[in-house]
Amino acid sequence: MNKMVGIKFKASGKVYNFDSGAFVLNNGVHVIVETEQGLGFGYVAVHPVVYDETSLDKPLKKVFRLAGEEDFIQRQRNLDFEKRAFDYCISCIESLGLKMSLFSVETTFDETKLIFFFTAEGRVDFRKLVKVLIKKFHVRISMRQVGIRNQAKMCGGLGRCGREICCSAFMDKFAPVSIRMAKEQSLSLNPTKISGQCGRLMCCLTFENDTYRQLKKKYPAIGKMVITPDGKGKVIRHNVICDRLTVRIDKDSIVEYELKDIKRE
Questions:
Q1: What is the reported pTM?
Q2: Would you say 151 and 119 are in contact if contact means Cβ atoms under 8 Å apart?
């Protein structure tokens, strides 16, 4: 009976599926797994479940072994190596005058490759930088330019709600977000209030958008004339959470009513 387990290599990273083999794995257990880059150090994020091999496009790679004391020591060496590589690369970027912002460095578990993540407004010619880095560290070098939203996901942080930002906490991929969603939810269109740490529209605008759209179907559209207990008026605002709407009766009278008290013309 084959079992599939979900493994994460870092807290804000994606969950990857592996064959757990004969290992009994609980959430949080650290393991060494086979990856395309060689052996990797990760932890169990999704409990093992039975799966059918025929339903997969390609066979799953296996969990190689449970992480031991030497693996944790190697992991600490990796972190120290990444820190040294980051500091050195920053100094090289400044000396070469490159217009790029380095924000993260990762190494493979066996320290045979370094991956440098950066953001930039346009394309960057980093060939000289790569040569300097290879000469310094004697490993394979990969430079990856990512978008500002990916930077926020990788770096993490707190949102204006006081919680860890969604992309870093649990989101696997980014969904399209539009200003129309903010309008649909009657939010302030002030960019500073509906933008996340990345400077783009907050991802959480997508979470409740479908609910708002469904609830608003029973409301008269803004600008429509309706009949209220105080006479005819024009709808100027919806409050779908409280099941109420605001109506302008005349130039000097704006009243909020429950939806059940409103009749359409």
A1: 0.76
A2: yes
